[in-house]
Amino acid sequence: MSGLSDSSNIPGVKRPTLRRDASRNARRILDAGRAVLRENPHASADDIARAAGLGIATLYRRFPTRDDLVRSVVWDIFETDIAPALTGAEAEADPRTGLRIAFEAAMRTAAHERVAFPAGMTLEIAQSFLGPASRLIQRGQEQGFLRRDLDPENDTLRLLLMLLSVLPTFSQQSEGWNRYLEFVMEALTLTPREPLPPAEAIVDPFQRA
Prior knowledge:
Residues 23-81 form the HTH tetR-type domain. Residues 44-63 bind DNA. It comes from Streptomyces dengpaensis. The protein has nine helices and no strands. It has helices at 2-5, 14-39, 45-52, 56-62, 66-91, 95-113, 121-142, 154-164, 178-189. Helix 5 (66-91) runs parallel beside helix 7, helix 6 runs antiparallel to helix 7 (121-142) and helix 7 (121-142) crosses helix 8. The longest helix has 26 residues, at 14-39.
């Protein structure tokens, strides 16, 4: 019976605590990563571990490389700030309103966070935005609100990347990008004088030979 009096000897008793500790540490690292990278997009893993109040070994047990850490921070930001807005956007009765909400969420988050993405991740994140936004464009076309020569898949992704490209020209707290979002929204809803040239498939710029 003495062996059972010490819970550390019972298989599995410690594991839930360890899992909870690991989960709490991961949350601390992600929160610290978001705060640190917002101020310095090129901050080191040591900087983030220090801000989280954890040792670098603890950080690397969860995130083996800095790129792994940054990718996890970016996905956490997406799931926290952008994904809920996309869900709300698709629930809007007017797809034009929904599309604006979707673009605004992506732009406001990207403007505020300013994380330097690992190679190839900009397109990866943009593609996660693509599904809801392209469905909104399709609805807008079906309802006669948006120009019918838009390619919901290829044009939506390029429009987002085009809008994101203006952010470095503004201060981090500025919402001056709204001017360019308005240009884009008006262009999508105007009756075209001539049809657009054909849309081409997306090419990942980081995968080019």
